[in-house]
Here is the input.
Amino acid sequence: MAKYIFKFPDIGEGLEEGIILEWKVKKGQRIEAGDILVVMETDKVAAEIPSPKSGTITQLFGKEGDVIKVGEALVEIELEAGEETAPLEDPAKATKVEAVEEEGAGVVGTLEVATGAAVMRASDEGLEDKPQAQETKKRKVLATPVARAMAKDLGVDINQIKGTGPGGRVTKKDILQYVERQSKTSGQTLATQPAYGTQEPRVEVEQLSQIRKTIAHNMIRSKHNAAHMAVFDEVEISRLVEIRSRYKEIYAREGIKLTYLPFILKATALALKKHKALNAEMDLEGGKMIYKKYYNIGIAVDTPRGLIVPVIRDVDRLSIKQIAIEVQNITRKVEENKITLDDMRDGTFSITSYGSIGGKFAFPVINYPQVGILGIGRITEQPVVRDGQVVVGKVLPLSISADHRVVDGAEVSRFLNTIMSYLADPISLMME
Amino acid sequence: MGYCYKDKYDLPDIQIIDSPRNFDFFLWQPDRLYIVLGRSDKPDLAVNMAEAGRVNACIVKRPSGGHAVVLSPRTIVISAIMKGHGLNGRKVFDRINNIIINVLTDLGVKQVMQRGISDIAIGQKKILGSSIYRRRPGHYFYHAVLNHSEDIDLIDRLLLHPRREPDYRQGRRHKEFVTSLTREGYNLTISQIIWALGKRFGQAMQQ
Here is the structure.
């Protein structure tokens, strides 16, 4: 009989963990595919998790109240003969292991499934003590996707490693320990191999921070789901530079720092009101567009910990001065590391400003499920034609990425034109 | 006098859980004082039991997540079923809370917004709490309680501070964190709100 490890699936909430509220099965209990195994609680959602397989429960991982991360083992099921997913007639083929993405029995999300003989069998348990070399000739090991990626990065043969995870899976920890062990015994493991006679390691292995994981997850989600397109343009903002310069000092007396960002935020909010497709969200499954009638703009901020996007709410209703205060408050919270999740929620559009670092144009990644993101480049002095004369003007480069599923290029250009017209004539920002 | 306790949720809105429709809703004004526990709540850790006994509250455990709330004839319970492939809790919270926010905004309530995980607030104060029970993948039972005019001091006396709280609560006690439409100065009647909600939910059903 084969055994199957059912892991806590991503139930579509975008969360990384849940609490075991209530076990609905016991060890030794026979279950059918679709039977409820456990009730898990994520944020305010109590979700009944069905089994994707029929069989007998041989192990429950965790007790009620325990926190389980997505991807961690929940239950071990001894499968019935009919549930074994690969033919066993050809032992050579049956030893193949593959991690496939399977939507299991109505479970939203994916499961890593080991097929054929790779499913840990009751009779395999004693094999772990056999010599590793002999063992690896016969089969490949089970491993988490992260561990496989890490092994590949480090140039380590994962099949040489004995797994300590659920069902004998090789985990990240196993790989790190293996690398460390190898370096102590032979001094030739990749991660610590001396380079050209020096003692400097050739690679440095660092655990991903939570924020970096979140950024990675969000970026991939955006690139997978949105059809990115971009438009670039430049706007002459000499009048804005003049106004900002005049009010900068006046505001400074009140302790308010006036940058160009409040003007750009205001211009963007007013333009979003005129181009509703850019302030929207597509619900593809529901076949609907959701147009938002509030204008909460996120500002991408580069912090030592990684990129975060705090949100300024109802920007259309705020004056330039109020926006400047909001920007200042956000800046202070970022500096003091006091930004909360609440500060980053409910954005409807985003702005990323890289001009202070030096870029001119960019192709920013949309903060999905938003439809667009505006990139702000560095203001430069350039020759411009004004009243038939070539004069030195202040020019601001703008880049916009938008989701082509939602909005076409013409409308994105019109939207950018609207922003540019506000910035070219900043008085118009106060007139609406 | 004394409290009653029911481990099985049998309040009227549970009847829509077996609705054959992909979207269905149920609006009601409770007939008495209830304290409804979240699925993971333990009564003595979530409720001031002595006070619950004093006011003759009925304590019921609901199937959904989140923490304890107070239901009373001065509140409105809004429940809905949503079914569909690709749904998740976040989407269900967003869609239904958006309907409620639009209704309240149309009725003249200002600064209504979704805050925390799934609250609706007026400014920094909570006016509605909601939670979800995912019966099976793609099948969601949502319910929420909107505080029309319940006494915030009573809520403060009945409920203990929850184990987890949204960022915007910032450790505030119930009486500093929760508000009601009446307390915020809105003279809307319960039937007026239920009628407006029913109209908007009915439209959503047609879509």
